[in-house]
Amino acid sequence: MAKKRYRKRNRQSDPLLILSILVALLVFYYTSSIPLSILVLIGVNGAKVAFTYSKRKRKEEGLKRSGIAEIDHMDGIQFEYFLAALFKHVGYKVKTTQANSDYGADLLIVKDDEKIVVQAKRYLSKVGIKAVQEIVAAKSHYEANNAWVVTNNFFTNPAIELARSNGVRLIDRKELVDLILRVNPGSIPNAAEVRVQVTPKKIHCPLCDSKMVEREGKKGKFYGCSRYPSCRGTRSC
After folding, report:
1. Which of 58, 109, 110, 173 holds its CA 20 to 30 A away from the CA of 16?
2. Mind listing the pLDDT tens digit for each residue in 80-117?
3. Are residues 164 and 110 in the same domain?
4. Selection from 204, 203, 207 nearest residue 229 by Cα
């Protein structure tokens, strides 16, 4: 989404700059001089184009350093491991819950006597209201002070509304990237390392959590949901 917005802005700026230069050339051709107003216009539009390009490059570099593309290819267990390392790096004591009895929380993190239950959602689609309902229940069960849901994606509007009314903090893709960059990703296990070091528990569909099966497509092998075509979840091999 971000790339599309940046490209749209560039398309709005470039024609103005080109038009300004063409007008300047025509004026110079007929008068052998260029009015100051046209030079200012060229300078302003040139600065806009340069600023937009620089901003886009900084954003792209930040996304690359954050490892978010690698996170998108993790499974749930790998994502939990990565988050555990991330929270440890910023001073939290971290405990993972048992997968078969987590009561809606994947991680318990504690810092300065504040206990927080965290649910990790490595999804291909937006995280819905169910995740918020589960973490609210987990907060009560573990007698935590706060509850967070962290995802590599974004949240649906109903999930956002329910989280707001229950005091649940939602950490979406943008905030996760900002957090990773803020704590220096080079000094914690990066996403690529986690994918190599941590063995996925099972291959589950990121959309419906059903079992996935290996398939062959035009671009090679991939994992597809066993419930296809009712569910079209996929994962790279």
Report:
1. 58
2. 999 999 999 889 999 988 655 668 899 999 999 999 99
3. yes
4. 207
Would the pLDDT of 67 be above 50? yes
Do the beta carbons of residue 203 and residue 122 sit within 8 Å?
A: no
Q: Are residues 148 and 81 in the same domain?
A: yes
In whole angstroms, what is the distance from residue 212 CA to residue 230 CA?
13
CA dist., res. 97 & res. 106, Å (int):
5
Residue 77 has pLDDT above 70, yes or no: yes
Query: Which residues span the domain enclosing 229?
Result: 203-237
Token representation of residue 209: 């959590």
Q: Is 125 helix (H, G, I), strand (E, B) or coil?
A: coil
Helices and strands in the chain: count of H runs, count of E runs: 8, 8
Q: Which amino acid is at 180?
A: I
One domain for residues 81 and 193: yes
Distance of alpha carbon 194 from alpha carbon 206, whole angstroms: 18
Provide the residue type at 62 as one letter: G
> Which tokens is 182 given?
């803020």
